[in-house]
Amino acid sequence: MRAAVLHETGQDKLEVLDDVEAVGFGPGKVRLRIRATGLCHSDLSAMNGVLPQPAPFVPGHEGAGEVLVVGDGVTGLSAGDRVLVCWLPACGACASCKRGQTHLCLAGFMNAGTPNFKRPGGDVFGFAGTGTFTEEVVVGADCAVPIPDDVPFEIAALIGCGVTTGLGAAINTAQVEAGSSVAVIGCGGVGISAIQGARVQGAAQIIAVDPVASRREAALRFGATEAVAPDEFGDAKQRITAGEGFDYVFEVVGKSVTARTAYENTRRGGTLCVVGAGAMDDNFQVNMFELFFDEKRILPSMYGGGDVLRSYERAIALWRAGRIDLESMITHRVRLDGINDALDQMRTGESLRTCIEL
Q1: How high is the pLDDT of residue 106?
Q2: Is residue 59 reached through a cis peptide bond, with omega within 30 degrees of 0 on the bond before it?
Q3: Where are any strands of DSSP class E within the chain?
Q4: For residue 258, which of 203, 320, 154, 188 has the smallest C-alpha distance?
């Protein structure tokens, strides 16, 4: 079986191998044939060590495909079913799940420490307990979410992470109000989804901030009312909000420096929504006086901040109704052999989302 493998954390290239075997099938598990998977910036972050992940591992967590076989005790799934991969399934029994915060369930993270694959040289892990840069993968049945027949695999894959994260940040976490002003810092796939979420919520002004010109141009197509480079952000704040700051600012980069910029451009009493996944040693700082005096809400958003199954359904409904554009988010398509070119395109900002077709 073919899969793209990172041998050591810190390497910037994946090796596509044909001697990888998906392991772990048994009761409560399903074996999937991956048909499409998206390249998410979190995959890069795992490769370079920003996000913790045992190596060697198969990256990828934004996938969709078909069920090949189901293990004993699995209900609601059958061979041939079309599914998307949920990398953060809810157990339904932990304290977070019982409180209704299923997106904070840690059960899925526990899967990351169990190998999903093996090679003649030893065990291979799957990123975030999945690993979708492969032809086949074995996951828990709760990681395989059925999708309707009219949803293409590549669209379902995007909904499995980036779209759900960005839309949910605007709709679930920040709860953007109609008529408000919004700024989004970082306009990759997740940032573009946050822009679309703000548009769906009825924001009056949506300012996209990104250093890459092509991404700024894309942001305008997806609902931003204006797009600026980072060094123009201050001028936009002055011009659009009379210097007060934006009602909502989304940080979709995952760095303390951009989070601080987002904080400074949020109005007093406004909302800073932190969506980017950053490093454990990158500290965001505010002083105690401004924290008290400005009363800005700082809201982290994990995987869209809501029940992911409901969020999947909502994304599909909005897509069907033409309220969000998911097809155009896929700017590049490659086969597995082209994965390293796709990684370079994401690093430079050339791509919004690359679909890897298997």
Answers
A1: 87
A2: no
A3: 3-5, 15-17, 21-22, 29-38, 57-58, 62-70, 82-85, 117-119, 122-126, 136-140, 144-146, 181-185, 205-209, 226-228, 246-251, 266-274, 297-300, 330-335, 353-357
A4: 188
Closest-CA residue to 170 (of 39, 311, 322, 277): 311
Q: Are 210 and 191 in contact (CB under 8 A)?
A: yes
How does DSSP assign 130-149, residue by residue? Answer: T--SBSEEEEEGGGEEE--T
Task: Indicate the pTM of the whole model.
Answer: 0.96
Contact predicate 196/203, CB 8 Å = no
Spatial CA neighbour of 157 closest among 87, 66, 83, 64:
64
Amino acid identity of residue 186, one-letter, is G
Using one digit for the tens of pLDDT, what is the confidence trace for 223-279?
999 999 999 999 999 999 999 999 999 999 999 999 999 999 999 999 999 999 999
Contact 1, 18 (CB under 8 A): yes
Residue found by looking up tokens 């420096």 in the block: 257
- pLDDT value at position 108? 75
Q: Phi and psi for 112 in degrees, rounded to 5?
A: -65, -20
Give Rg (Cα) of the chain. Answer: 20
The amino acid present at 45, given as its one-letter code, is: S
Structure tokens at 96: 């977070």
